[in-house]
Task: structure prediction
Amino acid sequence: MASESDGDDTGGGRGTSEAKKRKLRDSTVIDEGKYHPFTKTGYRRTYPDNFISDEYPVYVESQNKEERLGNRNPLQISRLFKNVKGIHERRRVNSSKITLIFKQAAAANDFLSHECLKEHNMRAYIPAASVERVGVVRYIPKEASNEELYAKLTADQEIIAVRRFLKKESGKLVPLTTISVTFVGTNLPQFIYLDNWRYRVYEYIPPVMQCYRCMKFNHSAKVCRNNQVCSKCSEGHSYKDCNSTELKCSNCGGDHLAISKACPIKLAKTEQNKKSFANVVKTSTKNNSFPPLPATTKLLKNSVIEIKPTTLKIDEIVKNEKLMNCLIKTLVSLGNSNSIKTTTHIRETLIKNLGTLNG
Result:
């Protein structure tokens, strides 16, 4: 879904270290393709038209992993974007990344394909936390693939990604009944529906980021320049080369692995992460009026129909013959239907019929 990490422009993505990727490749998964995270085809993160905020950040980094854009002379960096319109501020994120702040959503979206990016071998993307939320849903049948779930799940907000949680048992990764669902928007829907079965959506609290090179927190091995530290004995070598029979955490000195969930320092970091994430969500919700997107409801066929807000008065609605016929058609359709009539189902039926007005 990160913290909701910043992710890249493919959406639904969550930053993963190379060490974690190696672990996945080395493990055996029951039907690996079935449980591979599924993301909406062709999705690219952008600011929606109805998104209202004080600022619209865009992350920029070099395509060359060895180049540290954030460490370059800021005056030199400014010259790279001299032909870009709408930039309000520039900020350093870390050694590899900078942020360009725009005041208009359209300007931020247009910059994603600006010619200067290709010219200077850079990539730009919108932070995931700015336009997406990840929710957790429990008790989902293990037999369903992520792609199948994506096709059948419905909610009041557009769904862009589904990922099954896995756990390791006897050297193999096995599926759990818990999934994460990525939605477009800055708020989570209260419920999600699978074949008319209602499931509650819970807030996703991302795990603490820990480097598998130096064992410290808040960064990944991909950007780490510290010395290698053994997760077993805390000495300066890889755990693969460790011959020690005694465990020693490099962070707290306790008799456990440095990656152990029981480490008191990691537990404290986890609690801090929960509080920080709650503040981020609260601030994000307060600073913009991006609603639960009733205009972009994800239908069973994964089609999204946008309905512009109407200011019609009641008498104007009554006089609108096409609109009245549409409402009557919806009521008749619902009355003749044997399916469970949830609020979501009623809304989807109405939106579908409203979509025919322009036909």
Observations:
- The first strand starts at residue 28 and ends at 29.
